[in-house]
Each structure stands twice: as structure tokens, then as C-alpha cells.
Design a protein that fits this description.
Mean pLDDT of chain A: 85
Number of strands of chain B: 5
Helix content of chain A: 40-55%
CATH superfamily of the domain at 417-642 in chain A: PPM-type phosphatase domain
Low-confidence stretches of chain A: none
Number of domains of chain B: 1
CATH superfamily of chain B: STAS domain
Order of helices and strands of chain B: EEHHEHEHE
Mean pLDDT of chain B: 89
Helix content of chain B: 40-55%
CATH class of chain B: Alpha Beta
Oligomer: heterodimer
CATH topology of chain B: Transcription Regulator spoIIAA
Largest sheet of chain A: 7 strands, antiparallel
Low-confidence stretches of chain B: none
CATH topology of the domain at 417-642 in chain A: Phosphatase 2c, domain 1
Strand order of the largest sheet of chain B: 1-2-3-4-5
Number of strands of chain A: 27
Strand content of chain A: 15-25%
CATH architecture of chain B: 2-Layer Sandwich
CATH class of the domain at 417-642 in chain A: Alpha Beta
CATH architecture of the domain at 417-642 in chain A: 4-Layer Sandwich
Number of helices of chain B: 4
Largest interface: A-B, 30 and 28 residues
Radius of gyration of chain A: 75 Å
Distance between the termini of chain A: 106 Å
Shape of chain A: rod-shaped
Structural class of chain B: alpha/beta
Number of helices of chain A: 18
Chain lengths: 786, 99
């Protein structure tokens, strides 16, 4: 059953066909039911009409026969009564009755005993059929004393002509018995005395046959009853004369039958529907004229409706078979109609499996299936198009993502990745971390060493992503370029600003902090362009005071201010971008400066203020704070801890010269002396002498305006580690360290005369360091004592 | 600082003795000016040259460039180690010929 239901569910054609057939069946049932129900009545009416007509016909027939009997009887009575004195004529008359009416059974003209004295006691002119002929004989004899027969007595008793009840007539001569009914009439003489009876009989069998000749229906039969209800005619011969219509109701009371009997004996006419012998019948009854008899035709309902029922069954069968055929053909037809749909489905499967160029079936239909296939074709084309677009978009996206990854790598490459620690550097420890919000970002930090100074910067380009990262790259390279020639942060910032502002068409800007830390002294020069003020974590946690300068990139002509601070040994400068203070958690709460201070203070209290320690702590705290929220901005931190100890000074000497190159020999003697004291060998001493001479001669030549006399102080100091010469003059600000180096690989023809001095200084000394302090040029040359 | 110029074997020889620092540079340059205008190859004898600074190197370079302009050679002989290191550092060891 389940399989069957599943089958139905899977097949549209079957389902639709079943529905159609179902509804057709309902319509047929209703229509035909109604038809048959109404027809039933028509048929019944028809049957009634038919039976009634037949009944009428038959009763008419019987009546006419009986009438003829009466007429013949009357006629012959008249004749006989006129010829009472001619007994022999009786035979003629008797014979003529049958001659004229061959369907009569017999006729008798019988007289009272000894009426015709010469004829004896009995005289009955008896005529009857014998085979094909008619025979008239003397009917009365000792064997048959007709005087006591019903037919003879009745006229006497009733005093009027009447029909007898059916009785058995015995023909002695031929020994034939026949059930007959007789019409007997008295023969009267002129005095009105009854002298005889004229009797005409009709065979009941013949009557029965006549009545039953016309049967409306095969199983219908006719009955005729007499005055008292006695059967004259009945299909069952046993019942004739022996039973009446009431007989069977004596034992089994049957009110319907009784009613019928009474109705008929009363001479009524009509139709009754009743049950006879268990079968439903229609009984049509009518009295037969004045005879007092009544006849009825019994029509079993099954007969009446036989044809009708047969018709009904035939129709039922036709409808049933028709519906089955309909079901079958509909399934076939719908399946056929849906065949294109199945093809369409198959093609769709092919497309779904990836072959987008499968050829859709091309129907020329314009109905729903045609529309569907048309739409499908459109969909397929769209699909192919979209997939092509998608492929190219995905490829572009992949390409962009790959580019971004490369850009991210390039950007990382721009940032310093080697951080000096106390194990490899005496002066500073540095650590930094930068986490961009996207693949590439706008934050930057940078640091490098030049001439005993640490140049560093930290910045934040407005925005994020690719535009900011490009700006970041420009800013960083500009920083490197400019700070190679400038040692003062304000100058660096101002030049950077002009350079960047001049090419800034997109109105981006960068907040920037530039610092230059003089490693020997711990003196910090710095300039801030709108960036967050760094923290100093040392004796406590404090903010480095910063002037309010505008960010870089806005106004090309802005002059940035210079600020100074002294950084004591052990202090960490903590620099950061606003990605730290503005780091947001899921509820959009910001980390804020308070928390930064807290973490720094806590680290300080735990002696964890070294750059990496501090930054790790800060990172951990921020991550915890932000939780699962998306990083909103680039996060950058840099820590610079000044760890240089001021070493013990072992030797300090001083020489003051005026700006006259002729005093150089004095200088060289001084240097000789110092180097010897410090323990340098001849070669080293020579190298130092050359370097110091270059430095001092530079000052002599250029520091003071031409013609003006000026002093130059040369201080020499040494400790266990180093010898340093400090050359101080009060002339024009001049930073020899920013002069470009000479190219020593040029050929003889290409070599320039100038530039050798600075080259020699750098080569022969470990470091040169220029500071402008309080209107003094301070140039320091250092050499490690090996 | 003592500078001696003489001609020897068809070449102009300059014998330098002492310390050629910036102070001595002007005087030494004047003394060596014949070498700028000579047509002969030049030999700079630095055997007794104890010291040279960039001022001195400048003088040497000037002599070299004018000699080359005439197609002549300039030879240096007798550098001690210290002076030689200066030549090396400044790349002058590549542009002079040494004996």
C-alpha cells in the first residue's frame, strides 16, 4: 500500500488522472443516479399505463365475449320462447349458438322434466365441440340429471340470468372434463312460468388463455375471480374453483391481499402495489362489466424494471469501464504532455552538475511548458554569464588579496625588525610592535642610529588600509631622507611637512612625533605634530610635555617647534598611537589614557619598565579589554629605554686655540699627548690626529665669519672604554655630520678636492656626534680604547 | 716640514720630510708648484713623511691631476704604514702609483 501511495505521489499524471476520473465518476453517478431515479417513475408509469391498457383491452375482450354470450342467450331465449311447441327446433337453436360463436364451449337449452311429453323426462339440446366439428345431442340422461346442476338451478333461484361460479363440466360421452363457467337464463312460457334454462358455457381454460394471451411482462399473470372471490382464472389450475382470493389469507393473514380481494369483489378498478409470495408486484384490477367478475393482472416489479435494471447495469458497466479507460488514457496523455517537462528536468540536472552549456530542448510550444522551457533557457544564459562574471571577480579579488599580502609584507619590511637590547647595546634598549587593523595600515614607527644619536619617530596616518599605507610609506622614507641631513627634530619636521604637504592631493595627514636622543648625554630633542604625547616611565609615570603643533601634511609653511628634555638612565620613553587609547571592546568602550597610565604604573612598580616588558604588558591588557571585538584601528607601541651609564672619567685635558690653521701643530701635539696617555699605538694615534685635525680645521675655516677671530676649545676625556674629543666653538651653527660623504671610488679625474675631511673623521673615529647646545657647536669624536 | 725639489733620471722628484698638516700645507704647496708645470713624470718621495692630513692630500691630488692632463705619471715612494693608512682610507691608494 505504501509503495502504491509513493507511486501516486511521484507521478503527476497519475494524480491528475485520478482526480479527473474521480470527479467524472461523481458527475456520472449524480447525473445517472438522478436520471435513473426519475426514469424509474417514468418506467413505472409506463408499466402502469401498459398494464392498464392491456387490462382494459383484455377486460374489454372478456366483456365482449361475455356480452356475446349474453346476447346469444337473449336471442335464443327469444327464439325458444316463440317456438316452445317445436322441440326439435331446440337442437337447431342450440347448434346455431355454437355455429355462430365457435369460441363458446357448449350450449344447452334444457327443459323441465317432461315438458315435452313425447321426449321423455329429460330434454336438453346440448351442443359442444368435438374436434373440429360441432355435435348436438341430447344432453340429459339418467347419468346426467341436469335438474340439479348449478346452471339449471340458479336462474330459478335468483330469478335473473347470471353467471355461475366455475365448475367442472363432465361430458359423459367423451369423458372429458373441463372447468367452465355458464351463463344461464330462464326460459319462460307465455304465462311467465319458468319452463327451462338456456345455458351457454365458456371454458375457463379458454377464458384463461384468452385473458392471459397478452402478457405485459413475461412473469406477469392474470387472474379472474367471481362474485365471491373464487378463482375463475389462475395460473395455478389447482386453485381454480377450489380456492378463493381469500383462502390463503385464512392461514397467513395478508391484509394487502384481503384488501385486494374486497376491492375486486366490490367491483372496483385500480392498481395496488403489494407483496405476493415475497415479491413486490403491481396488481392492476378491473371488474368485468355486469358479470360480477373481476380480473387482475399481476406484474412483478422485477419484470417491470427488468429492462430498466438491465439498462442501469449496462450503463454502470459502461461508465465503470469508461472511467477505467479514461484513467488509463489520461495517464498516458498527461505523461505524454509532460514528457517535455521530464526532458527539461533532465537537462536541468545536467546543468546542475556543472555543464552550463548543455543544450536545452527547444520546444516550439507556447503553452506553460513552452514558457517554462523559455524561462529556463533565459536562466541558463544568465547563469553562464553570472558565473563568468563571478569567476573574473573572484580572480580579481584573489589578485587584490595577493597584492595586499605582498603589500603587507613590504610594509613590514619598512619597519625596523632588529631591536637593540642591553646585551648588545650599551646605550639604549628598544622594542616596538605594530598591529595593523587590516592587511596594511597607516601607523609607522622608525628608529636608527647616526653619530651617537638615536633618531626615532612614531606616526599615525589618517585612515586605514591601502591609502593610509601608501601615505605611511611616503612619510617613512621622507623621514629617513630628511633626518640624514638634519639633526634637529623641528627642522626635520618642518622639511617633512613641506615635502609631504606639497604632494598631498588627497588631503591626508599624519600625526608624527620625531625625537633625537643624544646617546652620550641622554639629552632628548623632540618635536610633536599633533601626535599623542609619549609617556616617560622612570622616576614615575609622566607625560612628556608637547607643544600643540598641527599634523604633518596640512600646511606646507608651518614652522614646527623644538623641545628638549633630559632623559635619565633607566627611563623608558613610551610612544604609542591612538589605536591604543581608542581600542574598543564589544560595547564600544574605549581603552583610554587612564588605563595606559595604570598599566605603566603597575609595570613600574614591578620593575617591569624595560621596553619589551612594558609593551608585552600593555598588549596583554588591551587584548583582554577588547575581547572578541574587531580591531578598529592600527595599534602601535614603541619603547626606548636609556640605559647608558655615565662612566668614570680617567683623564680630562683641554686646549684652546684660535681659528688660525697655523696653530694646528699645537693641536697635533695635544692629540699626541692625549693618545699616548690613553694608550693608543702609533698607527691609531696617527689616525686620531688626522681626524681631529680635520674637525678642528673645519671649524677654523668656516665657523667664524671671515676675518673674525674666534676661539676653539678642544676637550679630551677618556674612561676605561673610550677616548673622546669634544670640539666646541661659538660660531655659526654648523653640523659637519650632515655633509655628504665623498665617493672614494672615483677615478683621479673625477675626484673632487673637498669632502675628504668628514670622510676621514668617520673612518678613523668610532663615532662623531654634533650637538648645538646653547649657541655652541659641540662636535664630539670618540674612539674605543681597545 | 721640509720640501726639496730636484730632477733625477729625467723625472722631477719631490722629497718631503716632516709633518704635512694644514698649517704646513700652504708653504708646502708653494714649494711644490714647479711640479704642476713640469713636463716630466713626478716622483713624490715620502720616505721621511711622518704625517699627512687632508690638506696635504689635496696638494698631491692637484699635482696628479695636472700631470695626467699632460700624460705624465706621478709615483709615490716610501710611505710608512701610518701615512699609507690615510691613503687607503681616502681611496688615494687607488689613484696613485707606488714605487
Amino acid at each position: 500500500m505504501k509503495k502504491f501511495l509513493a507511486y501516486i505521489r511521484s507521478k503527476l499524471s497519475v494524480r491528475v488522472s485520478i482526480w479527473v476520473v474521480f470527479f467524472a465518476a461523481i458527475i456520472f453517478t449524480v447525473a445517472l443516479g438522478f436520471l435513473f431515479y426519475e426514469s424509474r417513475d417514468a418506467v413505472r408509469e409506463e408499466a402502469i399505463g401498459k398494464a392498464t391498457r392491456i387490462l382494459d383491452n383484455t377486460s374489454l375482450q372478456v366483456e365482449s365475449i361475455m356480452n356475446r354470450v349474453e346476447v346469444a342467450s337473449n336471442l335464443n331465449k327469444w327464439l325458444v320462447e316463440r317456438h316452445l311447441n317445436q322441440p326439435d327446433s331446440m337442437f337447431v337453436y342450440s347448434r346455431s349458438i355454437l355455429l355462430n360463436n365457435p369460441d363458446f364451449y357448449n350450449a344447452s337449452i334444457a327443459f323441465e322434466p317432461y315438458h315435452f311429453k313425447e321426449k321423455g323426462r329429460y330434454f336438453s339440446a346440448y351442443t359442444k365441440h368435438i374436434g373440429d366439428s360441432i355435435r348436438t345431442i341430447q344432453g340429459g340422461s339418467d347419468n346426467y340429471q341436469y335438474f340439479y346442476a348449478d346452471w339449471y338451478l340458479m336462474p330459478f333461484l335468483l330469478d335473473k340470468p347470471s353467471w355461475t361460479e366455475p365448475y367442472m363440466d363432465l361430458d359423459v360421452a367423451t369423458d372429458t372434463r373441463e372447468m367452465v363457467t355458464s351463463y344461464c337464463q330462464a326460459i319462460n312460457d307465455q304465462q311467465g312460468r319458468k319452463v327451462g334454462v338456456i345455458n351457454i358455457s365458456l371454458s375457463i381454460t379458454w377464458l384463461s388463455q384468452t385473458i392471459s394471451a397478452t402478457k405485459p411482462y413475461p412473469n406477469s399473470y392474470s387472474i379472474m375471480i367471481g362474485r365471491g372471490g373464487t378463482y375463475f382464472v389462475h395460473p395455478d389450475p389447482e386453485k381454480i374453483t377450489r380456492q378463493s382470493i381469500f383462502t390463503q389469507t385464512l392461514e397467513h393473514p395478508d391484509p394487502e391481499l384481503t384488501d385486494l380481494g374486497h376491492a375486486m369483489t366490490r367491483g372496483e378498478q385500480g392498481m395496488k402495489s403489494m407483496k405476493l409470495n415475497g415479491k413486490k408486484c403491481y396488481v392492476f384490477y378491473k371488474p368485468l362489466g355486469k358479470t360480477g367478475c373481476s380480473m387482475a393482472i399481476v406484474c412483478p416489479e422485477s419484470d417491470i424494471f427488468r429492462g430498466f435494471n438491465r439498462l442501469q447495469n449496462s450503463v454502470r458497466i459502461i461508465v465503470f469501464v469508461g472511467l477505467l479507460l479514461m484513467l488509463f488514457f489520461f495517464i498516458r496523455i498527461i505523461t505524454f504532455e509532460l514528457h517535455p517537462l521530464r526532458k527539461l528536468a533532465d537537462e536541468a540536472e545536467t546543468i546542475a552538475s556543472g555543464q552550463f552549456n548543455a543544450q536545452l530542448p527547444d520546444f516550439k510550444r507556447v503553452d506553460e511548458i513552452g514558457q517554462l522551457s523559455h524561462s529556463f533557457g533565459n536562466m541558463q544564459h544568465s547563469l553562464v554569464r553570472y558565473i563568468e562574471e563571478l569567476k573574473s571577480t573572484t580572480a580579481q579579488k584573489a589578485s587584490i588579496e595577493s597584492d595586499l599580502r605582498i603589500a603587507s609584507g613590504i610594509q613590514k619590511g619598512m619597519l625596523p625588525d632588529k631591536f637593540p637590547t642591553k646585551t648588545d647595546c650599551d646605550d639604549v634598549q628598544i622594542y616596538a610592535s605594530l598591529t595593523p587593523a587590516k592587511d596594511v595600515g597607516g601607523d609607522l614607527f622608525d628608529f636608527y642610529f647616526r653619530d651617537e644619536k638615536l633618531f626615532f619617530c612614531i606616526g599615525d596616518v589618517s585612515g586605514k588600509g591601502v591609502p593610509a599605507s601608501l601615505f605611511m610609506a611616503v612619510t617613512r622614507s621622507t623621514f629617513r631622507t630628511v633626518s640624514a641631513h638634519e639633526s634637529m627634530p623641528d627642522r626635520i619636521m618642518t622639511i617633512m611637512n613641506k615635502t609631504i604637504a606639497d604632494m598631498n592631493k588627497n588631503n591626508m595627514f599624519v600625526t608624527l612625533f620625531v625625537g633625537v636622543l643624544d646617546l652620550p648625554t641622554g639629552r632628548l630633542h623632540y618635536s610633536n605634530a599633533g601626535h599623542d604625547a609619549p609617556l616617560l616611565v622612570g622616576a614615575g609615570v609622566g607625560e612628556l610635555p608637547c607643544d600643540p603643533n598641527i599634523p604633518v601634511g596640512f600646511m606646507p609653511d608651518w614652522k614646527y617647534t623644538l623641545q628638549e628634555a633630559q632623559i635619565f638612565t633607566g627611563t623608558t620613553i613610551f610612544l604609542f598611537t591612538d589605536g591604543l587609547t581608542e581600542a574598543m571592546d564589544a560595547e564600544k568602550n574605549q581603552f583610554q589614557m587612564e588605563r595606559v597610565n595604570e598599566v605603566a604604573a603597575k609595570a613600574l612598580s614591578q620593575q617591569q619598565q624595560e621596553p619589551q616588558q612594558l609593551i608585552d604588558k600593555m598588549t596583554e591588557t588591551v587584548h583582554h579589554f577588547v575581547g572578541d571585538a574587531e580591531q578598529s584601528d592600527d595599534l602601535t607601541m614603541m619603547g626606548i629605554q636609556y640605559i647608558r651609564q655615565q662612566d668614570n672619567i680617567k683623564m680630562q685635558k683641554r686646549l684652546v686655540l684660535s681659528n688660525d690653521v697655523q696653530e694646528v701643530p699645537q693641536l697635533n701635539d695635544f692629540v699626541d699627548d692625549v693618545c699616548q696617555t690613553a694608550g693608543f699605538d702609533e698607527m691609531q694615534t696617527m689616525q686620531i690626529k688626522v681626524a681631529v685635525e680635520e674637525a678642528v680645521v673645519n671649524v677654523m675655516k668656516y665657523a667664524y665669519p671671515a676675518g673674525q677671530k674666534g676661539d676653539i676649545t678642544i676637550e679630551a676625556a677618556s674612561n676605561d672604554v673610550r677616548l673622546k674629543f669634544t670640539i666646541i666653538d661659538s660660531g655659526m651653527p654648523f653640523d659637519p655630520t650632515v655633509q655628504s660623504e665623498v665617493d672614494t671610488t672615483l677615478s683621479a679625474d673625477e675626484r673632487k678636492i673637498g669632502g675628504l675631511g668628514i670622510h676621514i673623521m668617520r673612518q678613523n673615529m668610532d663615532s662623531i656626534n654634533y650637538e648645538r647646545i646653547d649657541n655652541l657647536n659641540v662636535l664630539t669624536l670618540r674612539k674605543r680604547i681597545v | 716640514m721640509k720640501t726639496t725639489i730636484k730632477e733625477q733620471d729625467g723625472k722631477m722628484v719631490a722629497i718631503l720630510e716632516g709633518t704635512l698638516d694644514t698649517a704646513a700645507a700652504a708653504e708646502t704647496e708653494k714649494a711644490m708648484s714647479p711640479l704642476n708645470s713640469t713636463d716630466k713624470d713626478v716622483i713624490l718621495d715620502c720616505t721621511d713623511l711622518a704625517y699627512i692630513s687632508s690638506a696635504g692630500l689635496r696638494i698631491f691630488l692637484g699635482i696628479l691631476q695636472s700631470a695626467r692632463g699632460k700624460g705624465h705619471h706621478v709615483y709615490i715612494k716610501g710611505l710608512n704604514d701610518s701615512v699609507r693608512s690615510v691613503f687607503t682610507i681616502t681611496g688615494f691608494s687607488n689613484i696613485f702609483e707606488f714605487l
